[in-house]
Description:
The protein has 232 residues and is α/β, with parallel strands linked by helices. It has 5 helices and 5 strands. A 5-stranded mixed β-sheet has the order 2-1-5-3-4, covered by helices on one side. It starts with 33 loop residues before the first helix and ends with a strand. The model is unreliable at 73-78 (pLDDT under 50).
Amino acid sequence: MAKQDKETYDSYEKDVYDNPPAGPMGVHRGARSAASRAMPYVIVIIMALLAGLLFWGVYSGEVNNLKMPWSSQESPTTSSAEKGKSGESKSKSQSDSASGNKTDASNADSPTDSQQNDQNADQNADQNAEQNAEQTDNATAQQVVNTGTEVRVVNATNITGYAQSKVDVLAQAGYTSVSASNPTGNVPSQTVVWYQNETDKATAENVAQTLGISNVQQSDGLVTPIVVVLLD
């Protein structure tokens, strides 16, 4: 009996080899990208350029002028250290020469021990006298200027509240007994600070300095120890 059925690919049972994975397998590789194909040529060109630059540097002598990073760092440090040493040696020699000159001059012009002692004693006496005078003046000024002295500020101007503004200035300066008033009777021709007794002079001068007044006078018959008369 002749075989009537023809065996074909579909006649066999499917197995794992009938469903291969996608993509090239084994020696069958896919096409490479343009960058990967051009990379060897780029490397060859770069190596050729570097070789040409090296040959040109050796031939022209420019390779000797190249400074490496470590050489550039060492040279400024070395030069600065050498400059520092030279500067120290110069300053030391100058100081030695100056000290030698001073020693020679002091040896040539130095007075005797007794003269030096007399000069030192005179200088100490003068300094002590000046210090004592300054301390006395400061103590006297502190004792004479009395911010508790009664002060009356007279407004002889046409400005309303002008005397009160000066009273506020004196109060800020530490004066505790200051009052403002209007003029009664005759007034002077210019702004003035009057004080009654000689003991009030320092306080009157301090009041005038605080208010920016240069005219300070002693006056008899004042009811208040210090009177400030303000004029235009």
